[in-house]
Design a protein that fits this description.
The complex is a heterodimer of chains A (about 500) and B (about 80). By secondary structure, chain A is mainly alpha-helical. Chain A has 21 helices and two strands. With about 80 residues, chain B is of the alpha+beta class. Helices cover about 15% and strands about 30% of the residues of chain B. Chain B is built from one helix and five strands. A five-stranded mixed beta sheet of chain B has the order 2-1-5-3-4, with helices on one face. Classes of the chains: A mainly alpha (about 500), B alpha+beta (about 80).
Chain lengths: ~500, ~80
């Protein structure tokens, strides 16, 4: 009788040598990925989390039961009504972006479950696919109750099927990361960079804030998801180890590309929620401090362990920790009707906190909120368009997000001519990613190019309604209608 | 019409500005400042840059060397 550990090693690596087709026909490099290595090269593939199917199912059942127990206890609309109104907007951001991205990750894992080059890898990717299916279900089930409470939660189900600018950016990232990547790129990009590098920020850091905000269900949901992520993320390091031995330059390029792309996504989704939507009393650390702890420190250590360098744009990244999500938030506040959740103006106490947490940048950003407050002082409450932009904003040809990188003193956007067509990139890393694989990105148009081509309307309200798929009831507004105790309005 | 990417010093985002060839560079700066005014109060003394080149405020967009989808910057004049 084998011991459990011996059985797991044997069972997960059951394999056979093909006799009717060649190894290359069974695993074509176009789908399995390059470098196309021999079977022997992949033979040492190993990762530390080992489980069997019965163990997996038993454990997942327990975890699901635990999430649903919390939902039954504190998941009613009346429970959400007790939470800070700003916090709900972080939930709307997650309700839109999370479930179908997780579903796309099912497909990425299934591709690895078929075309991964080691049998053990294929077995673990099968569990990974089941994990991601669970991560699709949980937020859909947990937040479904909120659809009847607030129309914006209903709109989150339309999100990825719309041409909303955030959805375009989300699809551009998710389609490439999870649906189009071969198993090698998927393992490095998703399992190693995205899940090892970034998801602790979300599932550990944000979970702590959810607890502070009184949202026990969100806390439970993300910590339950994280327990799966921690397991299947190990696939990434195991693939990277072999890739690094055979093609170190490609391994480094994949890490550099996907670290930047992941950073931009997390800066918006997690950065907004941590530094603007979480009640001040519940903010244990700033987004930047979480990034420094969970990403900068730990991720650099992981890179070192794999013999890789920090990405070439590291100084740019460190600067963007102080600026990027603040610049996007301030810009998005003044274009809030272009999204499906509401925004808040940071209060004087919150601005003091932000100044303390971001001493390098807040001095350049605070004036924006002074100006926004001044504009609200001149407007009637609820007159959102009095404090709203009207010009069409511009978007990056790579990440599809707004051109809000660099600093307010010097925006880092750069125009480049490629194949006779001008492109604009929010930053040098986005430009580098595009120029590294232009054939992958060149046919995709950002929103401005669609407007100029006549595919989308140039009038802002028409763009919101007809192209972004929003109506007045759905689109983002100031969460308090501009009624802030510190805003002084002239007495009539 | 010439679509241009405008960046105002002190602002947090780039904006699409639709200029006419006979708009003066001063008018171009005014258009960008008006478009960004919800975030940044318009400043009276500004310069317009195309790359590192300072554009003549009285010259026109059509003769300035700016072409469709170029970047221009509006920066505060420092005396």
């Amino acid at each position: 009788m084998l011991k459990r550990e011996e059985w797991l090693d044997l069972a997960r690596d059951v394999d056979w040598e093909p006799s009717y087709v060649s190894e290359e026909e069974l695993f074509p490099p176009e789908i399995a990925g390059r470098p196309w290595l021999s079977r022997e090269d992949w033979a040492g593939w190993d990762e530390p989390y080992k489980t069997s199917f019965p163990e997996y199912v038993t454990k997942q059942h327990e975890k699901d039961a635990s999430v649903y127990a919390v939902r039954d206890a504190v998941g009613r609309v009346e429970d959400y009504e007790k939470l800070d109104p700003a916090w709900a907007n972080g939930l709307k951001l997650h309700a839109a972006t999370l479930p179908l991205a997780e579903f796309a990750a099912v497909i990425g894992n299934l591709r690895a479950a078929r075309f991964g080059r080691s049998s053990a890898w294929r077995t673990m990717a099968t569990f990974g696919a089941l994990d991601e299916l669970r991560h699709t279900h949980i937020p859909l089930v947990v937040m479904h109750e909120l659809v009847r409470w607030d129309r914006q939660f209903d709109w989150t189900h339309r999100f990825y099927h719309s041409n909303n600018w955030v959805a375009i950016a989300g699809r551009h990232l998710i389609d490439e990361l999870l649906l189009a990547s071969n198993p090698i790129e998927f393992a490095v990009a998703t399992n190693f960079v995205f899940e090892t590098g970034f998801t602790n920020l979300q599932f550990v850091g944000l979970a702590a804030m959810a607890r502070g905000a009184g949202d026990r269900l969100f806390e439970k949901m993300v910590t339950s998801i994280q327990s799966d992520e921690a397991r299947h993320a190990q696939i990434g390091g195991a693939v990277l180890r072999i890739l690094r031995q055979h093609d170190p330059a490609y391994a480094q390029a994949l890490v550099d590309k996907w670290f930047w792309r992941s950073w931009l996504l997390f800066a918006v989704v997690t950065g907004f929620t941590m530094d603007y939507f979480t009640p001040l009393a519940a903010r244990t650390l700033s987004f930047k401090e979480f990034m420094q702890e969970w990403v900068v420190g730990q991720f650099l250590q992981s890179l070192e362990e794999h013999g890789l360098q920090k990405p070439w744009y590291w100084e740019t990244f460190l600067q963007s920790l102080d600026y990027y999500h603040h610049m996007v938030y301030a810009s998005a506040y003044t274009y809030r009707a272009s999204v499906w959740f509401n925004f808040v103006v940071p209060s004087p106490d919150e601005r003091s906190w932000l100044r303390q947490k971001y001493p390098r940048s807040w001095g350049e950003l605070d004036g924006i909120w002074e100006r926004v407050s001044e504009r609200w002082g001149q407007a009637d409450p609820d007159n959102d368009f009095a404090v709203h932009g009207t010009a069409i904003v511009s978007f990056c040809d790579l990440c599809q997000l707004v051109l809000s990188n660099g600093t307010p003193a010097r925006n880092s956007a750069v125009v480049v001519e490629h194949a006779g067509k001008k492109r604009i990139f929010c930053s040098e890393p986005c430009r580098w990613i595009f120029e590294h694989e232009p054939e992958r990105y060149a046919s995709h148009n950002e929103v401005v190019k669609r407007v100029l081509a006549g595919e989308a309307p140039a009038n802002l309200v028409a763009l919101l309604r007809r192209y972004f798929g929003l109506s007045y009831d759905d689109w983002g507004k100031d969460a308090y209608g501009g009624r802030y105790p510190w805003i002084v309005r002239p007495t009539p | 019409m010439i679509p241009l990417y405008g960046f105002l010093e002190g602002d947090t985002i780039g904006l699409l500005i639709l200029a006419q060839p006979d708009d003066t560079i001063e008018m171009l700066a005014e258009k960008l400042q008006a478009s960004a005014s919800v975030r940044v109060a318009p400043r009276p003394r500004v310069s317009v840059l195309h790359g590192k080149r300072v554009l003549d405020p009285g010259g026109t967009v059509g003769r300035s060397g700016l072409t469709a989808l170029d970047r221009f910057d509006v920066v505060v004049e420092r005396t």
